[in-house]
Amino acid sequence: MPLEQKMELVCPAGSLPALKVAVDNGANCVYMGFRDNTNARNFAGLNFDLANAKEGVRYAHNHGAKVLLALNTYPQSSGSEKWQAAIDNAANLGIDAVILADPGLMQYACDAYPDLRLHLSVQGSATNYEAINFYHQQFGIQRAVLPRVLALKQVEQLMQNTPVEIELFGFGGLCVMVEGRCSLSSYVTGESPNTCGVCSPAKFVRWQPTAAGLESRLNGVLIDRYAGSENAGYPTLCKDRFNVGGETYYAIEEPTSLNTLELLPELMRMGVAAIKIEGRQRSPAYVAKVTRVWREAIDSCKRNPDAFSVRPAWMSDLGKLAEGQQSTLGAYNRPWK
Amino acid sequence: MKLALGPNQYYWPLDMQQEFYAAVANTPVDIIYLGETVCSRRHLMRLTDWLELAQKLNDAGKEVVLSTQTLIESESDLKTLRRITGNQTFRVEANDMGAARLLNEQGIPFVAGQPLNIYNPRTLNLMAKLGAMRWVLPVEMSREALAPLQSARPAGMETEIFAYGRMPLAFSARCFTARHYNLPKDDCQFRCIDHADGMTLKTREGEAFLVLNGIQTQSAKVYNLLGEIRGLQEAGVDILRVSPQAFHTSRIVQLFRETMDGLTTPQQALHGMQKLMPEAACDGYWHGKPGLERSYAENMAD
Which of A84, A101, A232, B193 is deepest in the core (most CB within 10 A)? Predict the structure, then answer.
């Protein structure tokens, strides 16, 4: 039986070309940010100025896709007018929903623009229905993006106790920490996702060839060291090798990506409203490939969820794009050692 | 300015825990936060045990606050949370928006914990309207970033800062202690109990960097604002929080009190504290720098 369920595919747009290929390859929604620290992918050369945003909204709307705007850092006490202005701009641009983490900013948005649709960002750290219902009750949020820490059973339980739509991460980089509650990056560099929209920012990264191997340092702290034959990864500080109790290993997390393709029928049955693809920092080519695979998979699952199987070609396409070229079901399934 | 003892972030044997609180009851600490804030699997102290301890400390003249768990995932977590928020005797520190909602619904004033992420005046005001009577600033907030919140602070709102201890920097659903022992989280054998100050994570060149404490990741360095007490007073901070460690907590509380009361200088107190800290001190966040940096030492004579 085909499912009536509408499951949206939400794809990353770090630039206008990425936005266009996401729409062209079947995204129902694209999400983007402005070119500053109002969003959690505040990377050099990424994101939208007003003119680009306008063109992006025009392109997406003309092709039947929605545009979501991430304003998901925490407004800092100095310069908080920047976040407020971003809400004003979102409303004026005809953005379909803003993705927020800060309760104060939600208050502003719902006072100033009662018709503007609000989504709770993953950076809002809401992992239970009481928290989600708080944002619903106070600000009328209509959708929540869950941190990548819950097991599927917990997601289902949560969904049964809230009127708020649930969006889950389906593919891409994997935060092992509860988003919005991690200050590891600022401990080392002074800049964190909450305050600056960055994690382990590139300007603090140094690569040093040494006799012991290639070393990656973040603001001087040794993050990892690679022997000649090893592939060196970006030094995200929770995904590297450290020494605990005399043993050197990936003490927090391996450099893996999340890939939940095989859970699709289950997610659809549960009534998950949307699947989010991570990766605004990735290239348009990446966005095009991931969007195409997920579009095909969601459509195939909708046609016949009982007979759904993950095509080897999808996994092979996605495998090539994954961080560290390994993937995991993350917390949804708990296979952790 | 008041002195508070934060919730114990570690998992200790029952007798050690009881001795600890018996000892701190006799220290000049004004407020004591109690409860399991890290992991729901830690069960040596049940809620009824915490409430009993709370009553004892209350009788000893301490203001007692029950702290809620930071990461609330399951229905059973919520059940415990509801029992805490509905306890009707002791004040509650909400460490998740779900806790804030339950307290707000009952019209009970509460402490807005550090994980609520209050970074700006608008959010602070909103939390005040919902019932917060005190807030704890995010660990990464600097003195400069605090200033606008303090000047726009709603009447009666108290400001508390994490002033001493290994900082809680991150929470995960994964248990890094269990991972170290190659155990599944759901069958972790409670290995945390063997690490009274957590497990030190070192870089590959041997620098103590972080501490693994179950699902929580802490700084290896000890955040220590003892040298900044004048600045904290000028910034209008009402309460300094000392986070429990396995040894010397009572002495550390004492040194903070003496410094706050002007009975000793920060230099002398810090000197006396050198050997009481499990690792070197840091204070970067307060100065708007990376958290692991230390500014105060630069000004010290030795």
Answer: A101
